[in-house]
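Support request, please re-run this one:
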Amino acid sequence: MVVFERPKSLTDKEFSYCPGCTHGITHRLIAEVIDELEVRGKTVGIAPVGCSVMAYSFFNVDMIQSPHGRAPAVATGVKRALPDNVVFTYQGDGDLAAIGTAETIHSAARGENITVIFINNATYGMTGGQMAPTTMVGQVTSTSPYGRKPEIQGYPIKVCEMLSTIEGAAYVERVSMDCVKNIRAAKKAIKKAFECQIAKKGFSLIEVLSNCPTRWGMSPADSLEWIRTDMMPNYPLGVFKDKEEGK
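Re-run finished. Output below.
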């Protein structure tokens, strides 16, 4: 009897992420959802520039590499051309909330029937640990060595809270990769977002609080604790928009 195996929607290629990073867990959750919904043959993933730039090697579905920040625009074109396919983007905070802010907001405003998986680790993980739009007040990065100061760098952008005000957004939830309980809740949210798309309800986004041990300068265990002690008070978990539930 098989107790545990690799999802069919993941290839057998070894992940290229840093040790302790939870990108790999998030990949697995997405792959499990695709398998469970039996949509692997008609799923298209969009990965832009960032830590997930090699995602086309990891997901065993059709993948497209988009320019930095433009994944929602590419996903819009794919979905409109192939409306019966399941289309998702996989984006980091620097990609989605900086160079890709316009694409994200306007895709939601148009109610594009796509699913966005948004990885928030509060830093530019791939390019050197610079301050990101989601970097928190006081957080030290390579470009905010004295901590982010609102009077100099402004305040962090809270994507779920912002998108919850947009009429075209159908489902928006923030989850976390810090512990087994929250990982299970994250899978449930990702599955609901895909089901929202399949039911043609409109734009959905799942924000995932993820760690970055390398750029945070922490051990993997300490970085997971930091999600709980520092990130969650600034980025509370929960459903921010759910048209089906009237929220």
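The domain at 23-245 is CATH 3.40.50.970 (Rossmann fold). The mean pLDDT is 95.
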